[in-house]
C-alpha cells in the first residue's frame, strides 16, 4: 500500500482508505457486522490506515472503534463527522452557523462519538455539511481550536456538499482547514477546476468520497438493477437512472477498450492520478471488495491517453436530489 501526505498535517495516509458508511447497517441494506469486521481487519492487514465514519452512519462508529481497538498494534487513523444541529443536508442558503455548528453541539457530538467508538480521540473531526458563509462567523472555530488543545481531535475538516466543490473555497483559503472531503470521480470532475489546486496551494489534505458513484462506476448497475426495500440506493438510482448509467459506463468501456468489470479499477486510478488527492475512500462492505480496491495501490498509473479519454466523460448531474 502506497501512502500520501494529508496536506500539511504531517500525517501519512494510505492511498486507499476505508469509507465506512455502508457498514453502519442503516441506509445501506445487506451489511452484517461479522462481515464488516472481517473486511475492516483485512483492510488494515493490507495497509489501509485511514477510516472515515460519521455520527450519522448508524452503527459505523461503534464497529470502526471495535476494530481499531482490536488492532492496537497498528496505527489506524480515524475520521468522523459532526452532523449539522438542524439535521439539514445540504446546508441551505442563508443559514447562520449557530443553527448548524454551535460550539456546544460540536462538543456534544464529539463526546458521543468518542463514547460509542471507545476511542480516546479522533484524528480528523469533520463537519458533515459546509457553507462558506460561515467563515469568520460563529464560535465553531474557537471550539475546534480548544478540542485540538485538549487532544480530543488532531485535525479539522469539512465534508463538502454533494457536487459543490466550490462551496468550500473560502474556507480552504482561510488557513483554518486541515482537510476537505469531496465527491470526485470520472463523472464529477469539477473539483479539479478550482478546489484541488486551492488545496495544493494552501496545504489542505483531500479525501475523495464516492469515487465509484455509489456503484455507478462499477459496471454492475444496469437498466434492470433493483435494490432491497429500505436501501437508499433505490432512490439514488430511481426511474431510468440505471439505464442512463449503463449507457455511460458502456461508452467509457468502449472508449478505453476495457471490459465493464474493469471500470471500477480505472475509476479509482483516475482519482489517484491527481497528485492533490491524499486518499480515496470507497465503501467496502466485504473482504472481496477490500482486496480488489486495495490492489489498485500498486504504483501503476493511467496513461495520458487514458486520462484524456476519461476527461471527455464528465457528466454533470445530481442523483441525490
Mean pLDDT: 96
Please tell me how large the radius of gyration is.
19 Å
What is the subunit arrangement here?
A: single chain
H-E order: EEEHEHEHHEHEHEHEHHHEHH
Amount of helix: 25-40%
**Number of helical regions:** 12
Counted beta strands: 10
Q: Judging from the principal axes of the Cα atoms, what is the shape?
A: globular
Low-confidence stretches: none
Describe the structure.
- The structure is a single chain.
- This protein has 321 residues and is an alpha/beta fold.
- Helix content is 35%, strand content 13%.
- It is built from twelve helices and ten strands.
- The protein has helices spanning 33-45, 60-70, 97-100, 103-117, 140-149, 169-174, 195-202, 233-236, 241-256, 263-272, 287-294, 304-311, and strands spanning 3-5, 12-14, 18-19, 50-52, 77-82, 122-127, 153-159, 179-183, 205-209, 279-280.
- An eight-stranded parallel β-sheet has the order 3-4-5-6-7-8-9-10, covered by helices on one side.
- The two termini are 36 Å apart.
Secondary-structure blueprint of this entry?
Elements: E1 3-5, E2 12-14, E3 18-19, H1 33-45, E4 50-52, H2 60-70, E5 77-82, H3 97-100, H4 103-117, E6 122-127, H5 140-149, E7 153-159, H6 169-174, E8 179-183, H7 195-202, E9 205-209, H8 233-236, H9 241-256, H10 263-272, E10 279-280, H11 287-294, H12 304-311
Parallel strand pairs: 3-4, 4-5, 5-6, 6-7, 7-8, 8-9, 9-10
Antiparallel strand pairs: 1-2
Amino acid at each position: 500500500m502506497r501512502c500520501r501526505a494529508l496536506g500539511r498535517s504531517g500525517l501519512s495516509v494510505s492511498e486507499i482508505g476505508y469509507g465506512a458508511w455502508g457498514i453502519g447497517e442503516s441506509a445501506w441494506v445487506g451489511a452484517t457486522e461479522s462481515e464488516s469486521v472481517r473486511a475492516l481487519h483485512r483492510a488494515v492487514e493490507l495497509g489501509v490506515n485511514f477510516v472515515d465514519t460519521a455520527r450519522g452512519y448508524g452503527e459505523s462508529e461503534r464497529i470502526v472503534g471495535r476494530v481499531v481497538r482490536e488492532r492496537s498494534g497498528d496505527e489506524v487513523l480515524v475520521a468522523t463527522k459532526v452532523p449539522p444541529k438542524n439535521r439539514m443536508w445540504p446546508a441551505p442558503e442563508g443559514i447562520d452557523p449557530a443553527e448548524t455548528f454551535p460550539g456546544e453541539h460540536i462538543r456534544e457530538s464529539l463526546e458521543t462519538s468518542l463514547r460509542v467508538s471507545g476511542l480516546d480521540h479522533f484524528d480528523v473531526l469533520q463537519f458533515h455539511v459546509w457553507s462558506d458563509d460561515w467563515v469568520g462567523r460563529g464560535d465553531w472555530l474557537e471550539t475546534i481550536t480548544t478540542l485540538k488543545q485538549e487532544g480530543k481531535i488532531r485535525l479539522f475538516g469539512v465534508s463538502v456538499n454533494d457536487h459543490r466543490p466550490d462551496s468550500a473555497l473560502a474556507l480552504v483559503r482561510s488557513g483554518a482547514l486541515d482537510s476537505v472531503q469531496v465527491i470526485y470521480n470520472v463523472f464529477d470532475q469539477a473539483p479539479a477546476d478550482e478546489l484541488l489546486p486551492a488545496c495544493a496551494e494552501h496545504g489542505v489534505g483531500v479525501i475523495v468520497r464516492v469515487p465509484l458513484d455509489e456503484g455507478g462506476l462499477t459496471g454492475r448497475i444496469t437498466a434492470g438493477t433493483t435494490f432491497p426495500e429500505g436501501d437508499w440506493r433505490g432512490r439514488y438510482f430511481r426511474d431510468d437512472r440505471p439505464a442512463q448509467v449503463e449507457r455511460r459506463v458502456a461508452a467509457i468501456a468502449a472508449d478505453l477498450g476495457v471490459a465493464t468489470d474493469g471500470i471500477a479499477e480505472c475509476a479509482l486510478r483516475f482519482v489517484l492520478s491527481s497528485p492533490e488527492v491524499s486518499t480515496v475512500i470507497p465503501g467496502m462492505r466485504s473482504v472481496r471488495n477490500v482486496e480488489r480496491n486495495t490492489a489498485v495501490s500498486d504504483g501503476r498509473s493511467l496513461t495520458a491517453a487514458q486520462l484524456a479519454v476519461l476527461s471527455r466523460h464528465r457528466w454533470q448531474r445530481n442523483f441525490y436530489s
